[in-house]
């Protein structure tokens, strides 16, 4: 089972090259994984139909009892056959539906196959968390599929609407899963259903939240608005996601949990009321629409309400009818959507008012549609008739609530017959006053998938008993009555048959009066849910803008004060209530007096920041506080922390200096005396509170410190540097997450810098060759040699010629060139010595970045380009790739990030060992180097370009201004030339 699911995603990953190579014929290859899943499920038919199950469990994190559990029983067997079987047919249908040059075909194909894999995992999941993961995967892939035509606003809006509704429901469902798992003591679905937890408030809340997720997924009112709008997707998506797969997920979850929780008080009222209301509202709305896909879409909404009602009734016969109706609905609704796609493809429209004579022009297509429509209308001898008979009989013999549900079902069936007849009439009938619609020929390959599904509706009607054994195996999970119902096409004359006849005749009458019904429907129509949703979103957006404008005023001091006040209030409340300092040991001022001296100097530098008015002085003083903190680490005996702090502080100060080039020299914010009087107490109170909290937290330790165990574990592996071992081995998960955050932050910062190109002009501007900001902004000096004649030492830097002579420092250039390579060697040394000495990938990457920064400061951006010709994103991406690859390599030993060591022997160097922590640290090294390089290029080179362009524009303006007096001096001569003389240069005549 696991291999089948993984196969879907693996093949989907290669969909892009496959589709570029084979065109639309690539869908044949993509249909192989779902076809294989169908064949595998068929081989398990007898096991599932006998009440057995096939299980699979993959231990992901055994120490934490985290595993991926899969289980195939009768209900899962039914859903796998539908999801995989219809999925394979839809993929084959796509071969004829799409052209080879369809835009975005490769992405669409991969997303459709990946959705099939996610749906397969969803129905096989035997763990609540695993089910939720696949549940959200179907949401994501459906969003991509609905928004396939992303250039159209309607497609984007529909995709976002579906994502919003189903994701909110999914989040509520996740909370319900967590509550239910805690109440049951396990997240294993089969174990929960075998021994459901006793009904309590927690269980009732969990069931309500789970139903919220299920109903939103299956488009049950009031969540039904997203499904009709999802018809913006291509027809194959509608046939698969919205008939056989995604919308069935909610019904499946209701059917899966009903044996254990149908008796919970909140279950039946929600399921019966909302299911019945959806059936009526969907069917009624389908009677007034003119788009064939929308008719089917609202019909699907109504049918999903019917399925949800049946699945949630909670008895054996209703469960049997629900399973039969799930099968029937997939087999008749999918071919109807596919036929609609064929009509749209052949006629160029889906508007039933413009279609005429299609039945005579395409008789084979009409035959397939009639077979599927007869099953949807529940007419004999189709499968839909047998399923609806079972439903009517189950509700007929139920309690009072079931009788009300029976009345709703008969009314809904009437509407179903009416819109089914309207669909057939609109799609195929010849209409008075409308010319026959021209169509092109439909190939057998195009028609074969819907024809096969429609044929199943016909064959399984008389042969419904052959599938009754499988469906009965699921229904038998409920208490079996004395006289259980069995599926058959004919049960003789009875009340159920009479009700079917009444619904059919009434539906025919409604169809005959379709014009009056349509007018009545439009006259009493409520505001559409889509319009209500749009107004809610608009109101939410306006409210958020108003709140944002009120809260975010653009003042960093206000933001900081707000943060400190919230922290201060929360911490003081806890300290006042708990009074945790009673049992805490008294704090020590210092361990050695040198700590006090360094701390005093650091505090002095921090206080001096408040007195300066120049930004550069503030940056230097703030940097001194960082260096003071690093000295405290040195005194305390933490060389790793001190080395990292020194490097981080140095890089930060350089970045500040680069940014300050585009900012005013002095602080321009004027702080009034009353504001200063407010800020000082807030700052002092926050500092004091934080100090007390740190003291109390450190003194509250009751367990033994983990340091000794970490030292012992490090020594056990023959290592000495505990800090580095913690970062790349013992706590490597943290390092991996921090690396991803660092990369995302760097990408965000540089993206904001590079977004300024939108405001720099309409078109690209040419760079001044071999000129930098330090040469363009310089004034020309007389007597200073230019070119190569007076500067033979320019060979020290690769791009030294780009600097103005007055801005060059030969000493700096020589030092930069001589130290660059030793700095890189030092960075490599720090990387590989981290197992036994201070170092590591993070500090090594910072050191390498400092080497590149030195080249930039000495020679400008052209020198940086010569020193690091590769893009920073390459280093960042390669670092993440290496770290993630090492993490996944641990799966070969059973878990992610499992460390292993290789021992070898080299002829010259002797024995050596290579461990995965070193490789992991190498990924961190590349990542940090890429981040530093990216920031320097963004805040250095990018700002250099802005300065250069501003200098070019200023120089051009000065030259233009200088030329105006010269032109003005020629005007007296022009005047002397007399009237009628045309000036050769200068301004206008006369």
Task: Please provide a written account of the structure.
By secondary structure, the chain is an all-alpha fold. The protein contains 40 helices and 4 strands. It has a two-stranded antiparallel ribbon with strand order 1-2. Strands 3-4 form a two-stranded antiparallel sheet. Residues 756-770, 776-794 and 970-990 have low confidence and may be disordered.
Write the layout of secondary structure elements.
Blueprint: H1 2-13, H2 15-22, H3 26-30, H4 32-43, H5 45-49, E1 54-61, E2 66-72, H6 74-97, H7 105-124, H8 128-146, H9 153-184, H10 189-194, H11 201-217, H12 226-229, H13 235-241, H14 246-261, H15 267-286, H16 292-312, H17 316-347, H18 358-361, H19 363-376, H20 383-396, H21 400-428, H22 444-460, H23 464-475, H24 495-512, H25 514-523, H26 529-551, H27 556-578, H28 593-608, H29 615-636, H30 639-660, H31 673-699, H32 707-716, H33 722-730, H34 732-754, H35 773-776, H36 810-832, H37 841-867, H38 872-889, E3 901-906, E4 910-915, H39 916-969, H40 971-976
Helix pairs in contact: 1-4, 1-7, 2-7, 4-6, 6-7, 6-13, 6-17, 6-22, 6-23, 7-8, 8-9, 9-11, 11-14, 13-17, 14-16, 15-16, 15-21, 16-17, 16-21, 17-19, 17-20, 17-22, 17-23, 19-21, 19-22, 20-21, 20-24, 21-24, 27-31, 28-29, 29-30, 30-37, 30-39, 33-34, 34-38, 34-39, 36-37, 37-39, 38-39
């Amino acid at each position: 089972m696991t291999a089948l699911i993984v196969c879907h995603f693996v093949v989907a990953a290669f969909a892009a090259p496959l589709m570029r190579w084979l065109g639309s014929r690539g869908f044949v290859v993509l249909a192989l994984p779902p076809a294989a899943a169908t064949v595998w499920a068929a081989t398990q038919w007898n096991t599932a139909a006998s009440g057995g199950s096939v299980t699979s469990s993959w231990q992901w994190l055994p120490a934490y009892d985290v595993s991926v559990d899969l289980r195939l029983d009768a209900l899962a067997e039914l859903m796998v056959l539908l999801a995989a079987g219809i999925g394979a047919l839809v993929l084959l249908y796509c071969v004829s539906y799409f052209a080879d040059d369809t835009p975005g075909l490769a992405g669409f194909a991969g997303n459709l196959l990946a959705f099939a894999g996610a749906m397969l995992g969803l129905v096989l999941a035997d763990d609540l968390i695993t089910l939720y993961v696949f549940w959200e995967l179907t949401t994501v892939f459906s969003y991509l599929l609905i928004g396939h035509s992303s250039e159209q606003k309607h497609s984007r809006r529909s995709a976002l609407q579906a994502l919003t509704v189903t994701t909110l429901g999914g989040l509520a469902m996740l909370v319900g899963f967590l509550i239910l798992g805690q109440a049951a003591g396990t997240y294993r679905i089969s174990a929960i259903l075998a021994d459901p937890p006793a009904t309590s408030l927690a269980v009732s809340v969990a069931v309500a939240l789970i139903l919220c997720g299920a109903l939103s997924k299956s488009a049950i009112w009031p969540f039904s608005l997203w499904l009709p709008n999802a018809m913006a997707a291509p027809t194959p998506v509608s046939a698969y996601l919205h008939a056989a797969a995604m919308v069935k997920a909610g019904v499946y979850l209701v059917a899966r949990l009903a044996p254990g929780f149908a008796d919970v008080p909140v279950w039946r009222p929600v399921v019966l009321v909302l299911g019945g209301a959806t059936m009526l509202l969907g069917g009624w709305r389908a009677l007034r629409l003119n788009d064939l896909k929308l008719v089917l879409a609202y019909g699907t909404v109504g049918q999903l309400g019917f399925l949800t009602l049946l699945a949630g009734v909670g008895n054996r016969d209703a469960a049997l009818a629900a399973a039969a109706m799930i099968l029937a609905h997939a087999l008749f609704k999918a071919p109807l959507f596919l036929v609609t796609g064929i009509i749209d493809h052949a006629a160029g429209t889906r508007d039933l008012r413009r279609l005429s004579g299609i039945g005579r022009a395409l008789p084979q297509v009409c035959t397939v549609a009639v077979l599927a429509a007869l099953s949807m209308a529940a007419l004999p001898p189709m499968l839909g008739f047998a399923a609806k008979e079972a439903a009517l009989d189950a509700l007929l013999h139920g309690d009072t609530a079931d009788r009300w549900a029976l009345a709703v079902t008969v009314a809904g069936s009437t509407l179903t017959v009416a819109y089914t007849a309207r669909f057939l009439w609109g799609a195929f009938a010849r209409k008075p006053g409308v010319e026959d619609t021209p169509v092109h020929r439909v190939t057998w390959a195009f028609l074969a998938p819907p024809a096969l599904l429609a044929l199943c509706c016909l064959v399984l009607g008389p042969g419904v008993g052959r599938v009754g054994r499988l469906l009965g195996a699921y229904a038998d999970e409920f208490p079996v009555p004395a006289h259980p119902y069995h599926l058959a096409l004919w049960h003789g004359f009875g009340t159920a048959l009479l009700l079917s006849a009444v619904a059919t005749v009434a539906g025919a009458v409604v169809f005959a009066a379709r014009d009056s019904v349509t007018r009545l429907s439009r006259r009493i129509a409520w505001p559409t849910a889509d319009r209500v949703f749009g107004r809610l979103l608009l109101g939410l957006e306006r409210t958020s803008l108003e709140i944002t404008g009120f809260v975010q005023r653009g003042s960093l001091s206000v933001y900081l004060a707000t943060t400190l006040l919230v922290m201060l209030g929360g911490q003081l409340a806890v300290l006042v209530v708990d009074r945790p300092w009673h049992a805490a040991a008294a704090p020590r001022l210092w361990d050695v007096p040198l700590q006090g001296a360094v701390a005093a100097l650091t505090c002095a530098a921090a206080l001096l920041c408040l007195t300066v008015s120049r930004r550069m002085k503030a940056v230097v003083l703030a940097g001194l506080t960082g260096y003071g903190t690093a000295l405290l680490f040195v005194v305390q005996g933490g060389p790793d922390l001190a080395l990292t702090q020194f490097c981080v502080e140095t890089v930060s100060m350089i970045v500040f200096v680069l940014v300050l080039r585009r900012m005013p020299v002095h602080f321009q914010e004027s702080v009034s005396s009353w504001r200063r009087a407010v800020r000082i107490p807030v700052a002092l109170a926050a500092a004091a509170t934080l100090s007390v909290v740190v003291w109390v937290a450190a003194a509250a330790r009751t367990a033994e410190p983990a340091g000794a165990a970490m030292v012992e574990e490090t020594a056990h592996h023959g290592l000495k540097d505990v800090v580095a071992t913690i970062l790349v081995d013992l706590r490597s998960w943290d390092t991996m997450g921090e690396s991803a955050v660092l990369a995302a932050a760097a990408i965000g910062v540089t993206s904001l810098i590079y977004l300024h190109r939108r405001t720099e002009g309409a078109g690209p501007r040419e760079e001044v060759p071999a000129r930098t900001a330090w040469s363009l902004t310089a004034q020309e000096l007389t007597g200073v040699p230019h070119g190569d004649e007076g500067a033979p030492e320019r060979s020290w830097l690769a791009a030294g010629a780009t600097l103005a002579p007055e801005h060059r420092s030969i000493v700096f250039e020589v030092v930069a060139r001589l130290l660059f390579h030793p700095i890189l060697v030092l960075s490599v040394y720090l990387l590989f010595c981290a197992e036994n000495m201070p170092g590591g990938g993070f500090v090594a990457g910072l050191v390498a970045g400092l080497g590149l920064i030195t080249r930039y400061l000495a020679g400008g951006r052209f020198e940086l380009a010569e020193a690091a010709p590769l893009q920073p994103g390459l280093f960042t991406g390669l670092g993440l790739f290496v770290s993630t690859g090492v993490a996944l390599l641990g799966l070969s030993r059973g878990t992610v990030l499992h460390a292993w060591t290789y021992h070898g022997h080299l002829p010259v160097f002797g024995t050596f060992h290579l461990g995965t922590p070193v490789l992991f640290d190498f990924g961190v090294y590349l990542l940090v180097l890429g981040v530093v390089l990216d920031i320097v290029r963004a805040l250095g080179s990018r700002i250099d370009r802005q300065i250069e362009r501003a200098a070019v524009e200023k120089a051009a303006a000065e030259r233009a201004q200088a030329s105006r007096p010269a032109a003005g001096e020629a005007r007296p001569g022009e005047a002397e030339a007399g009237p009628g003389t045309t000036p050769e240069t200068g301004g206008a005549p006369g």
